[in-house]
Write a structure and sequence with these properties.
Elements: E1 2-6, E2 10-14, H1 25-28, H2 34-40, H3 43-47, E3 53-58, E4 62-69, E5 72-77, E6 89-94, E7 98-99, E8 106-111, E9 115-119, E10 126-131, E11 135-142, E12 145-150, E13 154-159, E14 163-165, H4 172-180, E15 192-193, E16 196-197, H5 199-209, H6 218-224, E17 227-228, E18 238-241, E19 250-255, E20 258-261, E21 270-272, H7 276-281, E22 282-286
Antiparallel strand pairs: 1-4, 1-7, 2-3, 4-5, 5-6, 8-11, 8-14, 9-10, 11-12, 12-13, 15-16, 17-22, 18-19, 18-22, 19-20, 20-21
C-alpha cells in the first residue's frame, strides 16, 4: 500500500469502479463538480445511490491505496474509522482525484463554514472552493489569512474567519451550532460534505471540525462512543435508532427541540421533535 491524499475538493467513494451511472459523471470527472451533481438529482435518482456510494473524501484527506485498476484506486480512509477495516473506511475513487500528501506542517485547522475559498495569495485569485470539515495544516498567518499546505507540494491561503483550530476546546453547544449550518440541506446517501450529508455523515464531519476522530457509520458510532441511558441524554449528545434484531440505522444530535439530524433520502436536514416512529425505534444514546 502507498500513502496519498485527496487533491480535489470532494471525492465520492464508490463500492466499485462500475458503480457510477451516467448521471454521476460530474462526480467522477478529473475535476469533479459535486455541487452541480447533487443539484442535478431528484429523489428517485438519489435513491439509486444506495449500494453505489459509500462516503466522501475531502481535500487533503490522507488515504491508503491498496490497488489501482483502469483509472481507479481501491483505498482505505484512515480518518474515517470503520469496523469494515481497522485501517479505515474502504472503497474506490478515481485515481485522478489523488495526489501526494501535503508537506508536513503544524497547527491543524478545519473549515467551519459551509464552503471557503482556497486562494493563491491573501485576498488573491481562488484556486478551489473547499467544503466544511476540510482539515489542513497551517504554515503561516498574515493579515487575516492562514497559509495552508496542500497536496502535491503546494500551498494556498484561507481567510481566518472560515477556520477553526481543531485543538481548540469544544462543548455540546459547538456541535449543535455547526450542525445547524446545514438546516434545509437535502439528504445525500454517503454524503460527508457541504453539498449533501447523510445521518452519520453529519455526526462525523461535525466531530472532525472539533478535533474528534469519530467513526463514519452510525452503528460504529454507537459501538464506539460511551452509551448513556436515553432519559439522561442532553443537547449535543447522540440518539441512535434501530429495529429489533437489526443494525443501528439512524443517528442524530439531541437538541432542545428534539433532534438535529439528516433524516433520509427525499428529506432535508432538520431540527424537530421526535416523531412517534422515531420514538418507537430509539434504542440508545451516547455522549462524546
Amino acid at each position: 500500500m502507498k500513502l496519498a491524499a485527496t487533491k480535489v475538493p470532494v471525492s465520492t467513494v464508490w463500492t466499485a469502479p462500475d458503480a457510477p451511472r451516467d448521471i454521476d459523471a460530474p462526480a467522477i470527472a478529473a475535476q469533479p463538480d459535486v455541487a452541480g451533481w447533487a443539484k442535478s438529482m431528484d429523489t428517485e435518482t438519489r435513491l439509486g445511490l444506495h449500494g453505489r456510494t459509500l462516503t466522501q473524501l475531502l481535500f487533503a484527506e490522507p488515504v491508503l491505496v491498496r490497488t489501482e485498476r483502469d483509472g481507479w484506486s481501491e483505498i482505505l480512509a484512515p480518518w474515517q474509522p470503520s469496523s469494515q477495516d481497522e485501517l479505515g473506511y474502504p472503497g474506490w475513487v478515481p485515481s485522478s482525484h489523488l495526489g501526494e500528501l501535503p508537506q508536513s506542517a503544524t497547527d491543524p485547522v478545519a473549515i467551519d463554514v459551509p464552503t471557503a475559498s482556497l486562494l493563491a495569495e491573501p485576498d488573491g485569485r481562488p484556486l478551489a472552493e473547499l467544503s466544511f470539515a476540510t482539515v489542513l495544516s497551517s504554515v503561516e498567518h498574515a493579515d487575516g489569512y492562514t497559509r495552508v499546505a496542500t497536496p502535491d507540494g503546494g500551498s494556498g491561503w484561507i481567510a481566518d474567519d472560515a477556520l477553526r483550530s481543531v485543538l481548540e476546546p469544544s462543548g455540546p453547544e459547538d456541535r449543535l451550532r455547526l450542525g445547524e449550518l446545514f438546516l434545509g440541506l437535502e439528504y445525500l446517501w454517503g454524503g460527508t460534505s457541504a453539498h449533501g450529508l447523510d445521518c452519520s455523515g453529519l455526526i462525523h464531519t461535525v466531530s472532525r471540525v472539533l478535533g474528534m476522530r469519530t467513526p463514519r457509520d452510525a452503528h460504529d458510532q454507537a459501538d464506539t462512543l460511551p452509551n448513556i441511558p436515553v432519559d439522561e441524554a442532553q443537547p449535543g449528545d447522540l440518539y441512535f435508532f434501530g429495529r429489533p434484531g437489526k443494525q443501528i440505522h439512524h443517528v442524530g444530535f439531541v437538541s432542545p427541540a428534539g433532534m438535529l439530524h439528516a433524516s433520509e433520502t427525499g428529506k432535508r436536514l432538520e431540527d424537530a421533535p421526535l416523531t412517534d416512529e422515531r420514538r418507537a425505534t430509539l434504542v440508545t444514546a451516547a455522549r462524546f
